[in-house]
Write a structure and sequence with these properties.
This protein has a five-stranded mixed sheet, covered by helices on one side. Helix 1 packs parallel to helix 3 and helix 3 (41-57) runs antiparallel to helix 4 (77-86). It is 37% helix and 24% strand. It has helices at residues 16-22, 24-30, 41-57, 77-86, and strands at residues 7-10, 33-39, 60-65, 71-72, 96-103. The protein is globular and about 45 Å long. It is an alpha+beta fold.
Length: 111
């Protein structure tokens, strides 16, 4: 028997919502801390916001990381929408950031 996870890193290039749906039982039962990469701009609106919404529905709160690596937040979903729209692309024309999710309440809805 293995101990339940306490930390998950999610970086699956647009399949985050599928991973969350597939791991829902584990997330509900154990509530590991999640570090998830989010993508900015149009792609982020299509994929990252849906994954963010799925985690919020499971009772997680989202925290940004400042330049020192300290958590800032929790940050509500409307602010994440603005952050994703305002992300500046890097040299490869991709904008991304990591978000920390902590489970702080029971799931707000049963899907």
């Amino acid at each position: 028997t293995h101990a339940p996870p306490t930390l998950m890193k999610i970086d699956v290039e647009g399949a985050e919502e599928k991973l969350i749906a597939g791991g829902r039982a584990c997330l509900e039962a154990h509530g590991p801390v999640i570090a998830m990469e989010i993508i900015g701009g149009e792609i982020g609106r299509k994929f990252s916001l849906r994954a963010l919404g799925a985690l919020l529905a499971l009772g997680y709160q989202a925290f940004a990381l400042d330049e020192s690596g300290d958590e800032v937040g929790p940050i509500p979903e409307p602010e994440w929408r603005a952050r994703i729209d305002g992300m500046v692309p890097d040299k490869d024309q991709i904008s991304w950031d990591n978000v920390i999710f902590r489970k702080t309440s029971p799931a707000s809805s049963a899907r």
